[in-house]
Design a protein that fits this description.
The chain has about 375 residues and is mostly helical. It has one domain. It has a 3-stranded antiparallel sheet, covered by helices on one side. A hairpin with a 2-residue loop joins β1 and β2. α2 runs antiparallel to α3, α6 runs antiparallel to α7 and α13 runs antiparallel to α14. The longest helix has about 35 residues. The radius of gyration is 21 Å and the shape is globular. The relative contact order is 0.16.
């Protein structure tokens, strides 16, 4: 009887995907232990974050996708309200106001938008699938632009760009013509001087430091320089767990969050980096395979956008700490310390599993 209940509880969980996620989160905990100098409180909090996320993943995998379809607009509106509340009740950290303190944890609404935007846009195109045209694409763009502009005001350029790309993926997959894409790209290129003038001074300096980190090695270029030193000094086999000089001597900033990949690269070297790339590849590949099997517009678009969000989040963080992109403050999914980021990433996987296991329940 107990075995039957257990198997029924986990019947919608993709075993391969879940195994890969557990491996990745275990690597994250091991790296976090070194990055935080064996801070028991921090490690304990992250374990709690993971357990909460896994619990929600399992629960969401059992939810009928029709509920996601029905509640998508309400979830979108609720997430916008949370974003607006940040301006009034949020607290500032590292020069940005992005979090709301709720009883015993800090909530980052911009992370929740990573879920609600794909669901909302997928809902729109599902409802209008027989009449998709420029009007629907324009509405979709407005739905996407509102949270992005609010997030830019926090300011959080990295998350705004990530959400923008995620939403743009859905608009493209929903049938936006290549001509419009080319015109949009050309318009963006022409608008670069204006966009540059709207950036904060520290954001401009971060972009300039990407081109030449040595122009301000103790200021805007410091993070990037120390991160590249850490990854490069790991060599082929790494220096070993808790033996990374850049990490243990506190040269490397934000070791538990944005730069945790640098800690991992320094301590486990090229072999460790290749290992983590392989795990990420198979997680994303498995999600893509699941998305391809879905049989309706809502499921395909929502799943594709969630997969792209996870991919782009991973890519931006790794490219950022490797000196290939400006420092924008983006956590590494399933590895970086952070409650909202960890839980949201696992919720995304839970939604994908739900859409896959109930793929025939939403009729076009």
């Amino acid at each position: 009887m107990n075995k039957f209940i257990f198997s029924k509880f986990f019947k919608n969980i993709d075993k391969i995907l879940m195994s890969l996620l557990l491996c990745l989160m275990l690597i994250g905990l091991i790296t976090l232990a070194s990055a935080s100098h064996q801070n028991v409180s921090l490690i304990g909090n992250q374990i709690i974050n993971i357990l909460i996320g896994i619990t929600l993943l399992i629960l969401l995998s059992h939810i009928n996708p029709k509920r996601f379809l029905f509640y998508a607009p309400y979830l979108y509106i609720a997430s916008l309200i949370l974003l607006l509340l940040v301006a009034f009740f949020g607290f500032e950290s590292h020069g940005a106001k992005r979090w709301i303190n709720i009883i015993f944890f800090n909530l980052q609404p911009s992370e929740i938008i990573k879920i609600t935007i794909p669901l909302m846009l997928a809902w729109l195109y599902h409802r209008c699938q027989n009449n998709i045209g420029y009007k629907i694409h324009t509405i979709a763009f407005i739905i996407l632009a509102i949270p992005c502009l609010i997030i830019l005001k926090q300011p959080d350029l990295g998350t705004a760009i990530l959400i923008g790309f995620s939403g743009w993926t859905i608009i493209f997959l929903a049938g936006l013509s290549s001509r419009i894409m080319m015109v949009t790209g050309f318009s963006f290129f022409l608008a670069l001087p204006y966009l540059w003038s709207t950036l904060h001074l520290y954001q401009q300096n971060r972009i300039l430091s990407l081109i030449d980190p040595g122009r301000d090695p103790l200021g805007t270029g410091y993070h990037s320089i120390q991160s590249m030193i850490a990854i490069g000094s790991g060599g082929f086999l790494g220096k070993g767990w808790s033996y990374g000089g850049q990490t243990q001597l506190n040269f490397l900033p934000e070791t538990s969050t944005d730069f945790i990949f640098s800690v991992y690269g320094e301590e486990f070297g090229l072999i460790g980096i290749i290992t983590i790339f392989i795990i990420y590849f198979f997680i994303l590949f498995r999600c893509v395979v699941m998305a391809q099997k879905m049989q309706n517009t809502f499921s395909r678009l929502a799943a594709a956008s969630l997969v792209f969000t996870l991919f782009f989040s991973s890519f931006v963080n790794i490219a950022m700490v490797s000196g290939l992109l400006p420092i924008v403050g983006a956590p590494l999914p399933f590895i970086s310390y952070g409650g909202t980021s960890m839980v949201v990433s696992l919720i995304m996987i839970g939604i994908i599993m739900s859409l896959h296991s109930h793929k025939s329940l939403i009729a076009n």
